[in-house]
């Protein structure tokens, strides 16, 4: 039996090209990526919302036409949870330093309704820019690499952070939570809360973005899921 396809869903501010180093560690795997509308390279007034992200993820998975494993990073877990509920082809969800929200919860609501200091919020134009990404997202990368990664970020739709889930796929789909122990983007209590929701937790000695700093280690974990071996 062939291995399931692997769908990689990026987080806020990012572009799908961020997965390049990780994909290079996954030869022989059918890897699919997606550009979420909420952070697409378009004028800020054309950015999509969370529900458009969820629909895009859902369409991609259904178009594959076979079994899939989905790895969602950071905000990517929100549209994955919303869009992939009750889809039998999804064999496993991997939430990589990701938000595991429940029905009725939103990204901003999960933060108590307050904007974190690394969000540069433009209320009039309804978008957010990322501030200090080198220290928040990439704090285990050499300075030059962290700056290069940060330079690839773009604006994020503000409304996508306010929209609540209407469904939560992790309630019915086997799921794993991956905690980066040096993640400066998600506070430790939040990470532990999300891990407890899923019950199945893996830990890595990494920042928020192990696909940059530890691509081989991240790939090994995903291969375990793809081949059906139990995650430790």
Ordered list of secondary-structure elements with their pairings:
Layout: E1 5-9, H1 20-24, E2 31-34, H2 50-64, E3 68-73, H3 77-83, E4 90-96, H4 107-110, E5 119-122, E6 127-130, H5 133-136, H6 143-151, E7 156-157, E8 175-180, H7 188-198, E9 201-204, H8 210-213, H9 215-226
Parallel strand pairs: 1-2, 1-3, 3-4, 4-8, 8-9
Antiparallel strand pairs: 5-6, 6-7
Helix pairs in contact: 2-3
Structure description:
There is one protein chain. This protein has 232 residues and is of the alpha/beta class. It has one domain: Alpha/Beta hydrolase fold, catalytic domain (Rossmann fold). Helices cover 31% and strands 18% of the residues. It contains 9 helices and 9 strands. The protein has helices at 20-24, 50-64, 77-83, 107-110, 133-136, 143-151, 188-198, 210-213, 215-226; strands at residues 5-9, 31-34, 68-73, 90-96, 119-122, 127-130, 156-157, 175-180, 201-204. The strands form 2 sheets. The protein has a 6-stranded parallel beta sheet, with helices on both faces. Strands 5-6-7 form a 3-stranded antiparallel beta sheet, with no helix packed on it. A hairpin with a 4-residue loop joins strand 5 (119-122) and strand 6 (127-130). Helix 2 crosses helix 3 (77-83). The longest helix is centred in the first third of the chain and has 15 residues, at 50-64. It is globular. The two termini are 23 Å apart. Keywords: Hydrolase. Residues 6-220 form the AB hydrolase-1 domain. Pfam families: Abhydrolase_6. It comes from Streptomyces liangshanensis. One of its GO terms (molecular function) is hydrolase activity.
């Amino acid at each position: 039996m062939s291995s399931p396809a692997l769908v990689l869903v990026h987080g806020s501010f990012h572009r799908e090209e961020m997965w390049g180093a990780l994909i290079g560690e996954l030869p022989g795997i059918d890897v699919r990526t997606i550009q979420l509308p909420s952070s697409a390279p378009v004028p800020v007034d054309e950015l999509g919302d969370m529900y458009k992200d969820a629909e895009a993820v859902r369409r991609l998975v259904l178009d594959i036409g076979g079994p899939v494993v989905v790895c969602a990073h950071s905000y990517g877990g929100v549209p994955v949870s919303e869009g992939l509920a009750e889809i039998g082809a999804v064999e496993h969800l991997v939430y990589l330093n990701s938000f595991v929200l429940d029905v009725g919860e939103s990204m901003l609501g999960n933060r108590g309704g307050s904007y974190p200091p690394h969000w540069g919020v433009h209320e009039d134009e309804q978008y957010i820019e990322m501030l200090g990404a080198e220290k928040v997202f990439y704090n285990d990368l050499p300075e030059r690499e962290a700056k290069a990664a940060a330079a690839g970020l773009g604006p994020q739709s503000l409304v996508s952070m306010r929209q609540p889930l209407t469904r939560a796929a992790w309630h019915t789909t086997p799921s794993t939570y991956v905690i980066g122990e040096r993640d400066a983007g998600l506070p430790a209590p939040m990470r532990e809360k999300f891990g407890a929701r899923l019950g199945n937790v893996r830990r890595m000695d990494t920042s928020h973005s192990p696909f940059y700093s530890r691509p081989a280690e991240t790939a090994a974990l995903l291969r375990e899921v793809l081949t059906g071996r139990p995650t430790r």
